[in-house]
Amino acid sequence: MYVLANEPSVALYRLQEHVRRSLPELAQHKSDMQSWEEQSQGAIYTVEYACSAIKNMTDSSVYFKSIDSLLKHAIAMKDQLNAAQGRSTVAPQAKNPPASS
After folding, report:
1. Cα 90–91–94 angle (5° rounding)?
2. What digits encode the pLDDT tens for the residues 56-80?
3. What sign has the CA pseudo-torsion 44, 47, 50, 54?
4. Helices 8-59 and 61-95, packing angle to 10 deg
5. pLDDT digit string (tens) for 45-57?
6. In this structure, is the dihedral angle defined by the CA atoms of residues 55, 56, 60 and 62, taken in order, positive or negative?
7. DSSP state of 100
8. Rounded CA separation 12/58 (Å)
């Protein structure tokens, strides 16, 4: 009986039974893992893209500061022009009062 129970063909039969029972579950686990890997890769790409966008925003602060100073300078120049125009329109009227008839 001991010899028959340990015969190589019986061992191969038991191995075949084990593989036949566990293979569908292993295939399902493999499929699940591939799906999770795809989802993880998508999430990683999204996070890397967001980090890149934030870094670019941080790097662009120099440009925004430059734009801000240029806008302030342009507003100051416009105020100076308006003040100069106001003085030039007031000055000729004061020199040439309307003639009385």
Report:
1. 90
2. 988 888 899 999 999 999 999 999 9
3. negative
4. 20
5. 999 999 999 999 8
6. positive
7. P
8. 65
